[in-house]
Amino acid sequence: MKDDSNQKKQPLYVIVLLILAAEAIFILPFVLQRIFRTTFLESFSINDTEIGSCFAAYGTVALVSYLFGGPLADRFKPNVLMSVALVLTALGGFYLATYPNLYNLHILYGFWGVTTIFLFWAAMIKATRIWGGSNKQGIAFGFLDGGRGLVAALFGSAGVIIFSLFITKEVELTSIEERRIAFKQVITYTSIAVLLIGFIVYFFLNFSETNTIDSEKPSKILTLENFKLVMKFKAVWLLMVIILCAYYGYKMTDLFSKYAEQVMNYNKIEAAKVSTYLLYMRPVVGVVIGLLADRTKASLWIVIGFLLMAITSLIFYLGIIDDSTTLLFILSIGTMALGVYSARVLYFATLEEAKIPLAVTGTAVGFISIVGYTPDIFAGLLMGYFLDANPGTIGLQNAFGIMGLFTLIGLIASYLFYKHSKSKIA
């Protein structure tokens, strides 16, 4: 009962701050290039394969950071680590606005791998667990992911507005240099916003000392025994495959604006708006799917999410969608986003179904993440290869074809997980 009373003392603004910080940290490394894909590539004079190699640098550093960020989060208060991470990420944004060359861009993305994962990720997860207490974990993580989608959408909308303000004529009539100047303002103002959020988190993200989850000492977080225990669960291996495939699908949303511009013949501002509007789906999907999952099974909705992704991937791969089928394009990317966001929201909501002991939750999440988030390393390179080998429609079709293979594997794994979760065997 003590825990319950402490939970009531945690104010709503704390989860709001967590949501704001949890997405702000990823705006500079990921969201800006997702919304302004072609403008980003033009501004830095790089191609899809080269931006993919930057993400590979990020993912390689992040891979190690997932494992070792946890013990760090148990030694320092969440607000300290998160604020430091946000400030350092923002400083990286100011450097990004100088348009560094490709070599230095790799270093910057590696640096962001440290700030966003090693310093931030585990601290954010821990802070969310603290806010949720023992009885509100589902609500806490549901709010977190859905809210992050709304924050990303708001940042995206602000970025499109700023970009438009610094374009004085029809965007297609502007030179690359004029678009570079406008995009630099987007990067700069975004960096300022991330910096301010970092300071706000430091001063206002505080918890009562009695409402913390400290059942394990820092020195016991990483133990061989825990890893051996986690690896005995069949569900852990299935969840590893599920997250890998679902996260690859999420990375593919980076190409929506590129498809809108190169296939649907939208201009750069219109294409950026497409990605931004889709981001507004994420909070709605997060809340609705979360509620449905609580009333049924989370794994069932992951199966449905993969099914939607598989169908729409096939539609894009077959080249059915072109500039004469605008409605089908809108319905298809909306359906694909619904599938992607559904699976993403429920990533770790299945741990209870998997019958994984609460005491080794952190170890399980870290172990699963090592493989589950490897698309950070190879997704950009893989997409870049197909896009650069056949620029335009054919390259995009091939990229969605590869996504179809991943979603098929994810569909099989999620169905096996669903069947396994109905059994009494761990």
3D architecture notes:
- With 426 residues, the protein is mainly alpha-helical.
- The chain folds into two domains: 9-206, MFS general substrate transporter like domains (Growth Hormone, Chain: A); 223-426, Up-down Bundle (Growth Hormone, Chain: A).
- The protein contains 18 helices and no strands.
- It has helices spanning 2-8, 12-35, 37-44, 48-73, 78-96, 102-132, 137-165, 176-204, 224-231, 234-252, 256-262, 268-279, 281-295, 298-317, 326-345, 361-372, 375-389, 393-421.
- Helix 14 (298-317) runs antiparallel to helix 15 (326-345).
- The protein starts with a helix and ends in a 5-residue tail after the last helix.
- The model is unreliable at 1-7 and 209-219 (pLDDT under 50).
Strand and helix layout:
Layout: H1 2-8, H2 12-35, H3 37-44, H4 48-73, H5 78-96, H6 102-132, H7 137-165, H8 176-204, H9 224-231, H10 234-252, H11 256-262, H12 268-279, H13 281-295, H14 298-317, H15 326-345, H16 361-372, H17 375-389, H18 393-421
Short structural description:
The chain is mostly helical. Helices cover 77% and strands 0% of the residues.
Search tags:
18 helices, single chain, disordered N terminus, Growth Hormone, Chain: A, 426 residues, mainly alpha, 2 domains
Task: Count every helix, treating DSSP H or I runs of 4 or more residues as helices.
Answer: 18
Task: Detail the poorly predicted runs.
Answer: 1-7, 209-219
The CATH homologous superfamily of the largest domain is named MFS general substrate transporter like domains
Distance between the termini: 30 Å
- The residue fraction in helices comes out at over 70%
